[in-house]
UniProtKB/TrEMBL annotation, chain A:
Residues 7-54 form the F-box domain. It comes from the Eukaryota. It holds the Pfam family F-box. InterPro entries: F-box_dom (IPR001810), Zygotic_Embryogenesis-Asso (IPR053222). This is F-box domain-containing protein.
UniProtKB/TrEMBL annotation, chain B:
It comes from Caenorhabditis remanei. This is Skp1-related protein. Residues 126-157 form the SKP1 component dimerisation domain. Residues 15-79 form the SKP1 component POZ domain. Residues 169-184 have a biased composition (Low complexity). The lineage of its organism: Eukaryota, Metazoa, Ecdysozoa, Nematoda, Chromadorea. GO terms for biological process: ubiquitin-dependent protein catabolic process. Keywords: Ubl conjugation pathway. Belongs to the SKP1 family.
Length: 415, 190
């Protein structure tokens, strides 16, 4: 450009040269040009960016930002500032340090959103993340018809609001609500069936590979995958019968279940990942309410209360979702009103510990009820003797001087 | 009939005559016309490359003599360059032009505009792409306000006369609309 030269009349160019000039610009410059005037907006829109491979994502956090990603190319970020009184658009180019603020008087949030979608011939966005309550959801309802992937932060807890979000954005491919549940369409080759053994995907540590195929009305199949977090899975299983069968279908395993009957009844569940869950039934059997928390973190927890659930039902529930774990140990410090019912919900157990506080008759009744076959520990030390012995497959640690004769069904007697 | 001759004197067998919009005639070597897809197609259609065919002057109604002079200069310089490959039609962060091209295009904007239109009309891909890339580079990295200044677009917002509220308007007082030149038989592919 020469000194004192008149401006280049770019907008008077025929379509072909204008399109070529625009094509020689990067996405940032092209978007900037679209903001210059209404006319340039239509010209930029006209250069057919429809088929451009790109992702548009909107994040509603402390501020509203629109990210435009072109694979292997550039990323453009438009942040809405001063909403709602004095809405301005800050446009920046990722990694370049280039940015400018565009103040278009009369432009509201929906105008800026429309602007972005319009020049890329879009009525939907690829990803929408909402973290806080938006001041006005109608703004988005006016502009965005749908989105491929919707993610709602766990900060958003209001059911009506979440429902409103779902109605507004109509996610078509993936939905993530708070922590834990992810719903997405997975390719046929990666889809797994209920009878398959779940695999732990190294690349996605947070989620179990597998899940629940859901056939939609339109014939497409979506798969619910699950957070690889025992705490979440147990909570999900309590939600409804459907979610319970859903959790059962992913074939979860635990390494050991320990049931301790003391003042409260405590069920400790150990997992291969060295994670542990503690379920506490405090007012059992009067009240079947259970409190669930992690062993390491008692602050995080939830209370599950289903009026019709008794202790036995809760235990059966746990055994069912973990597919009858191999190692179950029971430690009894007091008798329950219905020991028979309690025994019935445990199909097999590997160890029985009986407290010293129980009387001989109580201990005898427990032994009659449970009939231990693998391991028995009688923590009863009336005579101060401590002796361990093992015979006929029943490993006994009997802390008494002497013992109890146990007559088995097959006629053999163990002591 | 005046006749501008390129540096190498073409013989009657291997040249054609083109006439600019202001009536000036230019004798062009057929080798040079290969760079213009418009002329090359015209020569092929009328079989002007055959010695036994009578060659009528080709009127170029959209090209002035000054533009034609400039274009012939370009064609002469790139006479022995390999055929232009249309493989750089997208944004590139790094591109350079040879010194000759920079000097050649060190012209006022209005001349650049006319030259771009002429290159578009004659379909000379190398010249067309070069000018387009230079024009794109002048906008690169600028904010919307700076682009307004560079392109002399006044504003597209004015207050509503009744309410005083800013309303959007397609302004650009200096922009009279897209000029319509669509005579190229086959525009360069994009």
């Amino acid at each position: 450009m020469m000194v004192g030269d008149s401006p280049f009349p770019l907008l008077r160019l025929p379509s072909l040269p204008f399109r070529r000039v625009a094509r020689y610009m990067d996405i940032y410059d092209r978007f900037t040009l679209s903001l210059v005037s209404k006319r340039t907006k239509y010209l930029v829109k006209w250069i057919n960016q429809k088929n451009m491979e790109m992702n548009i994502e909107i994040n509603v956090k402390e501020k509203i930002s629109v990210g435009i990603h072109v694979p292997h190319y550039h990323q453009l970020c438009c942040s809405i500032k001063g909403y709602p009184e004095n809405t301005k658009l800050e446009v920046s180019k990722w990694g370049s340090g280039k940015w400018f603020t565009c103040d278009k008087p009369g432009y509201r949030l929906e105008d800026f959103l429309n602007h972005v979608l319009e020049i890329y011939h879009r009525s939907y966005v690829d990803y929408f993340f909402i973290d806080i309550l938006s001041p006005d959801m109608h703004v988005f309802q006016k502009t965005i018809k749908s989105c491929s992937s919707l993610s709602v932060s766990n900060e958003v807890t209001d059911d009506d609001y979440i429902w409103n979000i779902l109605k507004t954005f109509k996610p078509t491919r993936a939905l993530s609500l708070g922590r834990g549940i992810e719903h997405q369409i997975v390719p046929e080759t990666q889809r797994r069936h209920l009878e398959d053994t779940p695999l732990y995907d190294v690349s996605r540590n947070d989620f179990i590979d597998g899940g629940w195929d859901v056939r939609r009305k339109d014939g497409t199949v979506a798969t619910c995958t699950f957070d690889d977090d025992a705490y979440f899975q147990l909570a999900l299983s309590y939600v409804s019968n459907r979610t319970k069968s859903l959790v059962i279908s992913i074939d979860l395993k635990c390494t050991e279940v320990m049931i301790q009957i003391e003042e409260a009844i405590i069920v400790r569940i150990d997992f291969p990942s060295y994670d542990n869950l503690i379920c506490t039934f405090e007012d059992c059997p009067e009240n079947g309410e259970s409190k669930v928390h992690r062993l390491r973190d008692t602050r995080e927890g939830f209370t599950f209360h289903k009026p019709e659930y008794r202790l036995e039902d809760s235990l059966s529930h746990i055994f069912e979702i973990y597919h009858q774990p191999n190692i179950v140990t029971v430690s009894i410090g007091r008798l329950l009103p219905d020991m028979e019912g309690f025994r019935r919900c445990i199909k097999s157990f590997s160890g029985l510990y009986i407290s010293r506080d129980l009387t001989d008759i109580e201990t005898w009744n427990i032994l009659k009820t449970f009939k231990p076959e693998k391991r028995l520990c009688l923590d009863h030390i009336p005579f101060g003797n401590d002796k361990g012995m093992s015979f006929k497959g029943l490993e006994c640690t009997i802390h008494v001087d002497g013992g109890y004769d146990i007559r088995r069904k097959d006629g053999t007697v163990a002591t | 009939m005046s006749c501008e001759e390129p540096t190498t004197s073409p013989t009657p067998e291997n040249n054609i005559t083109v006439v600019s919009s202001d009536g000036k005639e230019f004798l062009l070597d057929l080798k040079l016309t290969e760079q213009s897809e418009t002329l090359a197609r015209l020569i092929s259609n009328f079989e002007y490359d055959r010695t036994d065919v009578k060659k009528d002057p080709v009127p170029l109604g959209n090209i002035t003599s000054a533009q034609m002079q400039k274009i012939i200069e370009w064609l002469q310089h790139h006479r022995y360059y390999p055929k232009w490959e249309q493989n750089d039609i997208h944004y590139s962060t790094s591109f350079t032009f040879e010194t000759w091209v920079e000097e050649y295009l060190n012209i006022p904007n209005n001349e650049m505009f006319e030259l771009l239109n002429a290159a578009n009309y004659l379909n000379i891909p190398r010249l067309f792409s070069t000018i387009c890339r230079i024009m794109a580079s002048r906008i690169t990295g600028k904010s919307a306000e700076q682009i307004r200044t560079v392109l002399n677009i006044k504003t597209d917002v004015k207050n509503d006369v009744y309410t005083g509220i800013p309303i959007q308007e397609d302004s650009s007082s200096s922009e009279d609309g897209m000029s319509e030149i669509s005579l190229s038989p086959s525009p360069p592919p994009i």
